[in-house]
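Input C-alpha cells:
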C-alpha cells in the first residue's frame, strides 16, 4: 500500500468516527493526523484534541482516551488498514485550548 491508500482509509474511518463521537458526551474537538513523508515509513500519528486542558487528565484517567483509540483502530481495521500499520500507530493527546493559547489557533503549528 502507498501513503495515498493510507490517507483514503483514514479519511473513511474518520468520517465514521466523527458520526460516532457526536453521540457521546465528551468534550471532543477533533482528530488530526501526521503521515510519513517516506513511502517505507508506515508510522501514522493520530492526535486526539479535547476542548479544554482539564479534559486531558480526566479522560486519560477515566478511560475515555482508551475508548477513542480502540474505536478508531477498529474503524481502521474495518476499512482494511494493514495490521502492521495499526500496530505502530502512535496516539497523542492535547486540547484546543492549548492550540488557541500557545499556537495562535493553528493546528499545523501544533503538529510540527
Amino acid at each position: 500500500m502507498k501513503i495515498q491508500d493510507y490517507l483514503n482509509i483514514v479519511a473513511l474511518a474518520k468520517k465514521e468516527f466523527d458520526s460516532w463521537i457526536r453521540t457521546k458526551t465528551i468534550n471532543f474537538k477533533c482528530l488530526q493526523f501526521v503521515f510519513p513523508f517516506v513511502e517505507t515509513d508506515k508510522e501514522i500519528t493520530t492526535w486526539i484534541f479535547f476542548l479544554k486542558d482539564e479534559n486531558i487528565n480526566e479522560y486519560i484517567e477515566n478511560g475515555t482516551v482508551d475508548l477513542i483509540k480502540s474505536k478508531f483502530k477498529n474503524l481502521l481495521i474495518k476499512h482494511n488498514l494493514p495490521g502492521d500499520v495499526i500496530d505502530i500507530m502512535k496516539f497523542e493527546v492535547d486540547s484546543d485550548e492549548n492550540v488557541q493559547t500557545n499556537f495562535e489557533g493553528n493546528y499545523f503549528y501544533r503538529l510540527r
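Strands lie at 28-34, 45-50, 90-95. The helical segments are 3-21, 53-61, 64-78, 83-88, 96-102, 107-111.
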